[in-house]
Write a structure and sequence with these properties.
There is one protein chain. With 311 residues, the protein is α+β, with helices and mostly antiparallel strands. It is 37% helix and 27% strand. It has 8 helices and 13 strands. The strands form 2 sheets. A 7-stranded antiparallel beta sheet has the order 1-7-6-2-3-4-5. The N and C termini lie far apart (62 Å).
């Protein structure tokens, strides 16, 4: 009878470890109950990107990475921490703040495992992405959730002690975890949607049409003269270019952060205009944008353009 028992225990352990690949989503009402009890040590009045550790038999401690979306202009590069002994702050840089906020975003956005409380003696770890919430309970060693918690605890220690070297040392692990959580996004977020918009050009006194093919991480606009536009053309363009654009957008999503392309809205804008010269521009306000020709719409060519823009 011992072998079946051992097998059952091994299977249970495997399932528990596997389940901690992701965080568990929680609703706002559940989180608010916790916040009311520990208002002083959870940045309860702050909207933004937070990490809160709540041990069963001691006071919580928390990090406030950013009070608003890091992609917005003039984001503070100061990371804050709080525990029962006081409040702390460490001046960092916008790239580090964006990286940590991106890690919280990706881990919360891909949360889906059911929450399992393994007992009374442990720690609940909460992750907050503005108004979205997720948690994990005393994760097993070397699972994604445990690596995430370990990293955030190290960031907390760095802020509390003013140790910039310790904070800097977390960046490679943060990047690795961002990539892992990004890989859990469902494929359908990259599916292409088409939108047609008529545009009057006062310089030529005529209408033209913008056909926008948009997916999760990229916006591609085709400039179509009125004489060339046909009803249903947007679906023809989706059929012709949709798969390539989806593959390019997936590469962009997995290999960059929006901060890399310096934009506050859509991470990348592409205009397809065979009559215009090819060009690239990037501004802090409007982000990165390309003008390309239709024969440039191939996966390898597009990725080559992205790599060039990121240099």
């Amino acid at each position: 009878m011992k072998k079946p028992l051992i097998l059952i225990l091994l299977v249970a352990a495997t399932l528990t470890t596997s389940a901690q690949k992701r965080l568990s989503p929680i609703d706002s009402s559940t989180f608010e109950v916790f916040q009311k009890e520990f208002k002083q040590t959870s940045f309860a009045d702050a909207r933004g990107y937070r990490y809160i550790a709540a041990p069963s038999f001691s006071e919580p401690y928390a990090l406030l990475i950013a009070r608003k979306t890091p992609l917005m202009m003039n984001v503070s590069a100061t990371i804050q921490a709080v525990d029962k002994d006081g409040k702390y702050a460490l001046q960092s840089d916008s790239a580090t703040v964006c990286l940590l906020a991106s890690l919280i975003t990706m881990s919360v956005s891909t949360a889906m495992e059911p929450f399992e409380n393994a007992g009374l003696d442990g720690t609940s770890y909460f992750f907050v992405n503005n108004v979205n919430y997720a948690e994990t309970w005393t994760p097993k060693e070397n699972t994604n959730c445990e690596r995430l918690v370990r990293l955030m605890d190290a960031v907390f220690k760095a802020v509390k002690t003013g140790d910039k070297a310790l904070l800097e040392a977390q960046k490679s692990e943060a990047k690795a975890l961002v990539s892992i959580f990004k890989s859990y996004y469902p494929k359908d977020v990259f599916e292409t949607e088409a939108l047609v918009q008529g545009v009057f050009n006062p310089y030529i006194g005529a209408m033209s049409y913008d056909i926008n093919l948009k997916n999760y991480h990229m916006s591609t606009t085709f400039k179509i003269a009125q004489k060339d536009y046909q009803k249903g053309m947007e679906q023809q363009l989706v059929a012709k270019y949709g798969a390539v654009l989806e593959e390019a957008a997936k590469w962009l999503f997995l290999n960059t952060s929006a901060m890399d392309l310096k934009t506050a809205t859509c991470p990348l804008s592409i205009t397809v205009d065979d009559e215009a010269p090819r060009c690239f521009s990037s501004t802090p306000m409007y982000g990165a944008s390309f003008t390309i020709h239709s024969d440039d719409i191939a996966k390898d060519k597009l990725i080559g353009l992205f790599r060039k823009a990121l240099k």
